[in-house]
Amino acid sequence: MNASSTISIKRDSSESKKSVVLLSIVIIVWIAILILLFAKLAMYGQASGELGIPPNAISTDIPIEPDVHTLVMAIHPRCPCSQASLYELERLLPKCENRLKVHFYLYDSPDKEASWFAEVSDEVRRRFPDAQVLPDPDGDIARLLGAYTSGSAVLYEPNGTPVFWGGITSGRGHAGDNLGSDSIYAIVDNREPPRVKTLVYGCAITHSYSDLLLDNCSNRICEIPENLEN
Amino acid sequence: MLFQFFAAVGMALFISPRTWHGLQSSTHVHVTASIGIGFILAALPIYLVIRNPGARANQYVISTAQLMFSGLFIHLSGGRIETHFHVFGSLAFLAFYRDWKVLIPATIVTAVDHMARAVFWPESIFGIITAAPWRAVEHAGWVIFEDIFLI
Questions:
Q1: Is the CB of A180 inside 8 Å of chain B's CB atoms?
Q2: Residues A41, A61 within the same domain
């Protein structure tokens, strides 16, 4: 082996080492970026929506039946996350047998010509044939129930007292076991629920009262909108 | 990899195209995430395979990317049980390398993902807060169970 071939082998070995180090760095950076993005995605999935407090007694058009718990759920018909809430409700109802009655308020446009209700209510009725499905123009009922986020549910005792409110999914659009469903089932089953309030994950249906008041603020003078004065 | 990238984007567009706030809507985070994460996931394995086909490092990168794609699909589908089969299908696919070491990065990705979620967001994968770390160990155990039979 002459001197020039020895130098060539050494150079090749050095370049090979360099490329291995470079590749290792690229792979580490690649993994770090992906971990960061996945963590961000997981955080988005766990970002809960706004939830208010339901009124002390039921004050909507929903009839309260004796000996039966009543669940009222507010849904934004176009919220993709709420499909998981409906799916979870479909899993929950057979467990509760005939001890739970479900009613839906579907958020709708205040403009009747732009109404979404007709196009989505049939699908909800098909999946929940015993449920009452009602339109909620401009989210007024959702606001009344404190259900500012799609998928918010309020469970009422047979005497009309709210005993649970919140969501029945464990993340945005995330189906699977969750504390909300477990709590509702426990209450209906006359057991101690793990929670009486859970976080809710979904698209925003409406603003809270306080946000609405802020929206109506102008020149530092706030006026309570007419429909909220009571 | 390329097919999975397009599948992830298609899945996001089909399942959750837009997010809503009353009457207003905007592009859902899942759409941008599927494009961004999907592209990054697919780009490095494809580049390495073209640049240096047959290299040992490629197999480990593909193994890592494949199981991260499983995580992406599971997230985009809302954690559906059915989507979890992508994990087991991916392990079987990686077994075609006929090298047990290729299964290691894939198993680590699944275990780390579950453990991290169990610690930071326990309800997100198991729906319960208590005993979540043990459920993570159980899930990782099922992946190792398949690894044993694939080896």
A1: no
A2: no
If asked whether residues A10 and A77 sit together in one domain, one would say no
Task: State the smallest CA–CA distance between residue A118 and chain B in angstroms.
Answer: 16
- Is residue A211, in this structure, part of any structural domain at all? yes
What residue numbers bound the domain in which A95 lies? 57-220
Q: What is the pLDDT of residues B70-128, one digit of tens each?
A: 999 988 988 777 888 999 999 999 999 888 899 999 999 988 888 887 777 766 655 55
Do A5 and A114 sit in the same domain of this protein?
A: no
Q: Does residue A102 lie in a domain region? A: yes
Same-domain pairing of A1 and A76: no
Alpha-carbon distance A4 to nearest alpha carbon in chain B (angstroms): 28
Chain A residues with CB inside 8 Å of B25's CB?
Answer: 78
- Which A residues, 18 through 47, put their C-beta within 8 Å of a C-beta on chain B? 23, 26-27, 30-31, 33-34, 37-39, 41-42, 44-46
For the stretch B48-62, pLDDT in tens is: 999 989 888 999 999
> Is A41–B127 a contact, with Cβ atoms under 8 angstroms apart?
no
| Record: contact B124-A174, CB cut-off 8 A | yes
Comparing alpha-carbon positions, the chain A residue that sits nearest to B70 is A38
Measured between beta carbons, the chain A residues lying within 8 angstroms of B80 are 175
The 3-class secondary structure across chain B, one letter per residue, is CHHHHHHHHHHHHHHCCEEEECCEEEECHHHHHHHHHHHHHHHHHHHHHHHCCCCHHHHHHHHHHHHHHHHHHHHHCCCCHHHHHHHHHHHHHHHHHCCHHHHHHHHHHHHHHHHHHHHHCHHHHHCCCCCHHHHHHHHHHHHHHHHHHHC
